[in-house]
Amino acid sequence: MRKGERPQRIVNGKGRRPSLLSALTVGKPPRVIAEIKRRSPSCGPLNPDLDPRRQAGLYQQGGARAISILTNDNFGGSLRDLLEASKVTDLPLLRKDFLLDPLQLEESLAFGASAVLLIAGILAPDELLRMVQRSLELGLEPLVEVHTEEELKVALRTPARLIGINARDLRTFTVDLSIVEGLAPKVPRDRVLVAESGIKTHGDIRRLMHVGVENFLVGEALVKAEDPVKKLKELIHGEG
User: Fold this and answer.
1) Catalytic-residue membership of 12
2) How many domains does the chain have?
């Protein structure tokens, strides 16, 4: 997108996509953000032939509240995946990438996102604040991801309502759900909390619900599942 060009949201011709914040605060928990990705740097190939349209439709059928889409090529993704998913589902779409430049926010809007992931660990505090503010100006909902208490403090100094606690250390790729358990009680009630990474079973979800988590971003377990609809229902309801 050229500087100064007005972004146009591409959403099935139906206007603005539903709010991620609303999707994660209405209805009975647990609520799942289901992720679309083909591989990961830590695990390698997960589902190389994944079709974003088909996967998005299955996620909606299975009861996901929103869809996260990796648009970074290290995860086998691209902006086209975001655009294709936007054509077949009315769920909120979260663009998940290493977003560093405000122009990427305009780009996200143009390709159908209603929310963007902003990672506190890769942005300086002033940069994070500017990215959150610009997201809100554009009508995008920022989900600020943290992994440490210091990052959480920085995130809480921004107006972002959505706070994600990533159980994965992005430097070592180790996953530890106790990170979420330790930080979740420190998130104020006026923020909406999302647990990220390492969630594979209904038991994992029940474990984190004991510390007040109601929303869960799940990727690997769903893209590797033979039946994503059945897996989603197992995660949400304990079925299967």
Assistant:
1) no
2) 1
